[in-house]
Amino acid sequence: MKKLRIYVDTSVIGGCCDAEFAAWSNGLMWDFQRGLYRPVLSEIVAAEIQRAPEEVLLKYAELLSYDPEFAELTEDAAELARVYLERGAVGSDFENDALHIALATVANVDVLVSWNFKHVVRLDKIRLFNAANIELGFKTLQIYSPREVTTHDNSSG
């Protein structure tokens, strides 16, 4: 059976060390470790993570040990990100958010996960991203928080 390819943005890695998000981010890491899903990363994640605290860098190193795929920053991805920005899907100060979405779209991942509820995991934003994707010949992208993707059950506390 084909493993789902999941693009992980930087917020998910940082979420491993944040009390509010740790259960689900770490649950997703456990899913990657068990081989349930294949992580997909990018040079944008690699650049953003360099400014993170040591404990987050250790989580990133752990994620790198799970044989991730790397989405390449191609001209198609850069152009798609520009379209998102032009259409106001994200503001010009948040170009990396647009790049994460574009990279995941062009790499044809199954799902993008993020804790960024302001610019990424929001119905109105997802609709704008996917309208551009369809118009430019790409398939729609499923976008969720790790809570909705991980097999980890946090119902017991």
Summed up:
This protein is of the alpha/beta class and 157 residues long. It has one domain (4-149): 3-Layer(aba) Sandwich (Rossmann fold), CATH 3.40.50.1010. Helix content is 49%, strand content 13%.
From the alpha-carbon coordinates, what is the Rg to the nearest angstrom? 15 Å
Tell me about the biggest sheet? 5 strands, parallel
CATH fold naming = Rossmann fold
Overall average residue pLDDT: 95
Percent of residues in helices? 40-55%
Q: Quick one: CATH class?
A: Alpha Beta
Strand order of the largest sheet: 3-2-1-4-5
Please describe what this structure looks like.
The chain is of the alpha/beta class. The protein has one domain: 5'-nuclease (Rossmann fold, 3-Layer(aba) Sandwich). The chain is about 50% helix and about 15% strand. It is built from eight helices and five strands. It has helices spanning about 10-15, 20-35, 45-50, 55-65, 75-85, 95-105, 125-135, 145-150, and strands at about 5-10, 35-40, 70, 110-115, 140-145. It has a five-stranded parallel beta sheet. Strand 4, helix 7 and strand 5 form a beta-alpha-beta unit. Helix 5 (about 75-85) crosses helix 6 (about 95-105). The protein is globular and about 35 Å long.
